[in-house]
Amino acid sequence: MTNVIYYLATGAESLPLESGNSILLPKMYDIVWSIIPLVVILFLLGKLVLPKYMELLTEREDRIQGGIKRAETAEAEAQAVLEKYNARLLEARNEAAEIREQARARGKEIEAEAREQAAAESQRIIEAGEKQLQASRQQVVTELRQEMGQNSISLAERILGSELTAASKRAETIDAFLAELDATMPAGK
Predict the structure, then answer these.
(1) What does each C-alpha distance from 65 to 56, 58, 135 come to in angstroms?
(2) Taking the chain (189 residues) in consecutive chunks of 10 residues, what is each chunk's mean pLDDT?
(3) Is residue 58 part of a domain?
(4) Quick check: is 153 in a domain?
(5) CA 25 to centroid of chain Cα atoms
């Protein structure tokens, strides 16, 4: 309270808080003393913090842009690799189709060769069989002629009642009989 008395004694007409404070508008000294620290803080922020923040933002932006460029580059490389892979795959498929066609053609050639060899072998076997059949036929005909000759002589001796002794008579008789036999047989047999 002594301060109030001292204040009134100095010649002030009213107490400092008697006139009332405005809630919306502070006193001028409060505004001045509030602006000075604000300016100092803004100056310090502008000189120390803001450049570092801008540098950090620029660095992040560069990293993001670099990442985007790297991603685009990687995507382009991946696309190139994919196209190269697809080209190789197409080339491999074409080569496989070519190999299949060559294998089919070679298989047909082998089949044709096998058929030709089989036909040749079959023809050779048929010819060998025909030759063997012809030889057997010839042998059978020769044996039959001899047997028939013997049978005809025996038959002739019985009919005539005498023995045919002369070799020439026998040969003539046999040859005549066989000639008649050949004439009576069909031509195809």
Answers:
(1) 14, 10, 102
(2) 62 57 78 93 92 92 91 93 95 95 94 93 93 90 82 75 60 73 65
(3) yes
(4) yes
(5) 86
The tokens describing 99, both together, are 């190999």
Contact present, 176 and 184 (Cβ < 8 Å) = no
Predicted pLDDT at 78: 94
The SS3 of residue 160 is: helix
How many distinct structural domains can be found in the chain? Answer: 1
- Give DSSP secondary structure letters for 28-97: HHHHHHHHHHHHHHHHHIIIIIHHHHHHHHHHHHHHHHHHHHHHHHHHHHHHHHHHHHHHHHHHHHHHHH
Q: Which residues contact 7 (CB under 8 A, 6 or more apart)?
A: 15, 16
- Position 157 scores a pLDDT of 72
What's the rounded Cα separation, in Å, for the pair 173 and 179?
Answer: 10
Residue 150 is assigned to a structural domain of this protein:
yes
Amino acid at 95: E
**Would residue 20 count as lying in a domain?**
no
Q: Left if phi > 0, otherwise alpha if psi is -120 to 50, otherwise beta: which for 164? A: beta
In angstroms, the CA 139 to CA 27 distance is 157
